[in-house]
Predict the 3D structure of the following.
Amino acid sequence: METAFNNNDAFAHSKNSSLPPGGGGLGWGGSCQHISQLQLHPPPDPLPSREGEKTFCECINSKPERRLRVWSVAEQGFLSLANFGLAIFLARELPKAAWGAFSLGYALMLFSQGFQRALVSIPIATMAHSDDVLSRSLRFWRRTQTKLTLVATGALVLVALAWRWIDGDASITEALIIAALLVPGHFFLEFWRRVVIQTRNMKAAAVISLLFLLSVVLLVSGLHFMEGGALAAAAGLSACALMAGAMTRARALSRIAPTNDNLDLGQEVYRFGRWAMLSHLAFSGYTTAIQVVLSLVSGPAAMGSFAAVRNLTQPVNTLIGAIDNMDKPRAARAFAAGGFPELFSSLWRTMATLSILGGGYLLLCSVGGGYLVDYLYHARYGHAWNEVWMWCLIAAAMMAAQPLESGLYVSQRTDALFMNRLVSAAVGLGTAVITIPGWGVSGALLGLACGWLVSAALAAGQLFLFSRQAAEPEVIEG
């Protein structure tokens, strides 16, 4: 089960996220001229050049930055361990159909949360770059967050009622209700977690994520003794998230409180969020949509098998989220300081880190993952070697695509990212629709792998093209 609290699709916190001179707009295809009048994006500090001063690479590898990365890894680890533990328990204890419904409901919650990230989480990271701007705009972000939560929850309930009336498929209706139960708690925690991360208080975020993990352990114990089902698990998980969100909110407001000077960023968020939402919808074409197709064509039990084996690669998702927590803002500072050459240098370091740490784990999974799946789930899903190998391929493609997509975010070419994801969705979803009727879970995984591989290849080509275009004026001037 994927974690809802990661940074895989977010332009994470950066104290200097502006572009170098002549670098384009605010991102998502919009102009940043009106933003600069509000001093939301101060000019980046120039690179130190005098002898004896620290270079850019030395600054980003300083002791405080390393400490932040450690806390970031810890925070992602605790959150992922909580979700991983709950997923293993539910996949073992629930009937296959009930586990499949819960997995689909969780995926639908993540789909809904994509709009929260497009309209709240990512804009906060790029617009509220300082404590002053964050404090002045906090009331606006809270209003936007509340509206999104109400709309997402209400929409899921209405779709569940309509589906029950039109089709009568109880498993799809149950998945929609599960998603509606999960949304309030996860939206609440994600919002205040982003605010805390924005203040660079990663230690507090890590401690609260540990408490969230402990609360999920208590939830698992309660579900075991009370023999609770998928709906009880969803309600309990949302309650755990609400509790952690309340603690995160208290910590955030102790560091930064809203002021009477209310900064309304509605127009900026509209310009920012258009491309973000379109990119999210396209991204969902080779993630959420494939799972929906699998559930409709092959049934909830097939979705349960899909999600059960996916748990094996959860540590890779944790690694990607933790590295992305710190390396995306680092890439933003590198791009602001030195353009595409510095950006590529930062992205290569990220890819090397992911390859060394994640590649070794995937190699072990490809050799022994089937035995582990058989042991974890008491032979309920067999060894599932085909699914294990496909998930390892998908995880490897994700490790390649994530830094490259971050490069498109950082270089402010989210219009290109949208086209990237649109093509990837067409390839991935098209492959899944063709292969799922005959191959079931393997067909869904093939579609997902194709989507991620195409996304990585396109992002690499786009970044190379943009770097060549940026270098042309310099060649002419020379």
User: Anything to note?
Assistant: Residues 314-376 form the longest helix (63 residues). The CA atoms of residues 115 and 315 lie 25 Å apart. Residues 7-58 have pLDDT under 50 and may be disordered. The chain is about 80% helix and 0% strand.
